[in-house]
Specification:
The protein is α+β, with helices and mostly antiparallel strands. It folds into two domains: 1-45; 54-153, no CATH class. The chain has helices at 8-43, 54-62, 86-97; strands at residues 74-79, 109-117, 127-134, 137-145, 152-153.
Length: 157
């Protein structure tokens, strides 16, 4: 014959285990709803790769809601400097806020394409969208005003 005794600390242990299980089951019940919303946002994810043609560049800018003229205003090969000065550090901060970083491309030659934006609301004068492309991948970009008292910000509206 076996005799088993329960102490108060054993009861507390099992109570904590039961509460933890109930909490875990509750969390599992809500995870599928979170996963579904995450899959929707993946569909809306910005694609930075496979930017080979002018149409690809225009389509890239459309992902952010920008409408641009079909021909670029300027196409130029630029070199990302080896050391960032104060101005370029500020520009790279704009890139970092949109999930990009030009630090990885120091001393690299990249193509800069400048397009005239046709649907920027509230801006007086000409507005440009610049994108930096390295090996068919957008590595940076901005939207800026050509006005003397203009502005510059990331690609997001």
């Amino acid at each position: 014959m076996f005799i088993y005794s329960l102490r108060a600390s054993t009861l507390k242990f099992f109570a904590v285990i039961c509460v933890a299980l109930v909490t875990l089951i509750t969390l599992i019940a809500f995870v599928p709803a979170y996963g579904e919303s995450a899959s929707v946002s993946k569909d809306a994810e910005i694609k930075y790769d496979d930017v080979k043609t002018a149409e690809d560049r225009i389509e890239f800018l459309r992902q952010f809601g920008w409408e641009v003229k079909s021909e670029p205003v300027e196409t130029a090969e630029v070199t990302i400097p080896a050391e960032f000065d104060k101005i370029f550090t500020g520009y790279n901060e704009i890139q970092k806020r949109q999930g990009l970083d030009l630090s990885d491309y120091k001393k690299k030659k990249v193509m800069r394409y400048t397009y005239e934006v046709t649907n920027y609301e509230g801006a007086e004068g000409t507005v440009y969208a610049n994108i930096l492309v390295y090996r068919n991948r957008v590595i940076g970009g901005d939207v800026c005003s050509a006005d003397v008292t203009g502005f510059i910000h990331g690609l997001e509206k």
